[in-house]
Design a protein that fits this description.
It is found in: Cell membrane. The protein is mainly alpha-helical and about 475 residues long. The chain has 18 helices and 2 strands. Strands 1-2 form a two-stranded antiparallel ribbon. Helix 2 crosses helix 18, helix 8 packs across helix 9 and helix 16 packs across helix 17. The longest helix has 29 residues.
């Protein structure tokens, strides 16, 4: 009897596993969303426990949910004081959460699988490839050249592990002596250096101390190191993969790498110059300081606006023009398959290249001696429209709930969707619970990506065996 029950249990487990395998292979986008949602729930439950808070009391479920999503989605928005609310266990949960979210839950799962099995199966390779290129989650043929091919996924995963450990260790080495100069004891300084480095590389923006960046507000060394960590983290693991192989041979860099690096540098420079001009003379920010400090603060904000999330100045005191520039930078975000959010710099590049091609009367987009197929443009347009629609709808709803100024609400909504973490003060502990839940869901939607969300909600693609008559509507 016991043997029959055991056999029944095994068959049930086997059927469940087989069903999960079929679901994962048939609907990888929906499977990815379910896995990521489950991960958020796990961290919410961990942060709700009394042992995670400094005062030994359970964190309210809405606050725990918001912070768990902000942590796993590497956003940086907070409704509790991150420096004082959590116990050592809670801080450990936060750091583990941002590492898992920054690397990507599917990439992490593939890493663990490779470590245990010492090889990657086809399904693991597909999952990891979809994490490095969202186009992989779509059914049908992916026509554009991939930044990472299936045969290279094992190398990519090793690159992920090595790059995360190496970059964060380098940041710790650079930050640790500076923190010691503040008079901190060695262990406290080491903890803070590790915390800062993790939050910089994962583009999370959480701070370990009550004073935050205030002690380092005029220190070029500390701020530039944070900027460097954020910039590297925002490039994306496929970029590291190519650069480590062909660092001294730029001609062998893929189009994805060239677009990501060039557009990221251009946005960084353009944003810094814009802030320098727009905040000139603003005594509430940095506009009346010496020119060196103005340069430092302007380019620091330009770096953080695309996903970093650290803030030295009160963003609510910036000119409205500067807030609008920040909105645009946040909406664009960083590189694909990176710790950054937004619609991604390559999406912006594709839209710009399409406009240039149309203005010059060309039938196709070209960049760096390569032709870009039209289906990439359709994907870029879809990502942008999905993202803009989500931001607009959430902004309207939060305006009705809170009655706060539109510039502040729009800023924090874009910050949540693009997983940036900057705030004008709209997101705070006294925010209404419905608004916290909506912002948390916005962070989740932004982190899983509009492409993945669209693919998950779309019906199965069907082959169309006929072509309808062509007719051109008037555009413009």
């Amino acid at each position: 009897m016991a043997d029959q029950q055991t056999s029944s249990d095994r068959s049930f487990v086997g059927r469940a596993r087989d069903g999960l395998d079929v679901f994962a292979s048939s609907y990888p986008a929906r499977f990815a969303i379910l896995v990521f949602a489950g991960l958020n729930v796990v961290f919410m439950l961990l942060l709700m426990t009394p042992w995670a808070s400094a005062d030994g009391r359970a964190t309210p479920i809405v606050d725990a949910f918001f912070q768990a999503v902000s942590v796993v989605c590497v956003t940086g928005l907070t409704v509790v004081d991150m420096a004082t609310h959590w116990s050592p266990l809670g801080n450990a949960v936060v750091m583990v959460g941002v590492e898992v979210g920054g690397i990507g839950v599917l990439t992490l799962a593939s890493l663990l699988g490779m470590t245990v099995a010492r090889r990657l199966g086809l399904r693991q390779r597909l999952l990891a490839a979809s994490d490095s290129n969202p186009s992989r989650v779509r059914k049908g043929v992916v026509k554009e050249g991939q930044a990472i091919r299936l045969g290279e996924v094992g190398g990519l995963l090793r690159t992920v592990a090595i790059s995360v450990l190496s970059f964060e260790a380098a940041l710790v080495v650079l930050l640790y002596p500076r923190i010691l100069l503040e008079g901190k004891d060695p262990l406290t300084a080491l903890y803070e250096a590790v915390y800062w480095s993790i939050m910089a590389f994962t583009n999370s923006g959480f701070v370990p101390t009550v004073e935050g960046l205030e002690p380092y507000a005029t220190d070029p060394w500390f701020m530039i190191v944070l900027m460097l960590g954020v910039f590297i983290g925002s490039l994306g693991f496929p970029v590291y993969f190519v650069l480590l192989r062909h660092l001294s041979r730029p001609r062998q860099w893929s189009l994805h790498v060239k677009l990501t690096i060039s557009v990221s540098v251009m946005l960084f420079l353009a944003g810094g110059l814009a802030y320098l001009v727009l905040e000139w003379g603003n005594g509430d920010s940095w506009g009346t300081r010496d020119f060196g400090q103005q340069l430092l603060h302007a380019f620091f904000l330009s770096s953080m606006a695309r996903s970093g999330g650290f803030a030295v100045d009160d963003l609510g005191l910036l000119h409205n023009s500067s807030l609008l520039v920040t909105d645009m930078l946040m909406f664009v975000g960083g590189g694909s398959a990176s710790t950054a959010g937004g619609i991604k710099v390559t999406t912006l590049a594709i839209l710009f290249l399409a406009a240039v091609a149309e203005a010059r009367g060309r039938r196709s987009m070209e960049a760096f001696g390569r032709r870009i197929p039209s289906d990439v443009l359709r994907l870029a347009v879809s990502v942008t429209l999905w993202s803009a629609t989500i931001v607009a709808l959430v902004t309207v709803v939060l305006l009705e709930i809170t009655g706060a100024p539109m510039s502040f609400v729009l800023f924090d909504v874009i910050s949540a969707f693009a997983t940036v973490g900057l705030s004008t003060g709209f997101t705070h502990s006294g925010l209404e619970d419905p608004a916290k839940v909506i912002l948390a869901l916005t962070m989740f939607a932004g982190r899983i990506g509009s492409v993945t969300l669209a693919a998950a909600l779309a019906a199965s693609q069907r082959t169309q065996l006929f072509t309808r008559p062509e007719e051109r509507p008037i555009v413009g």
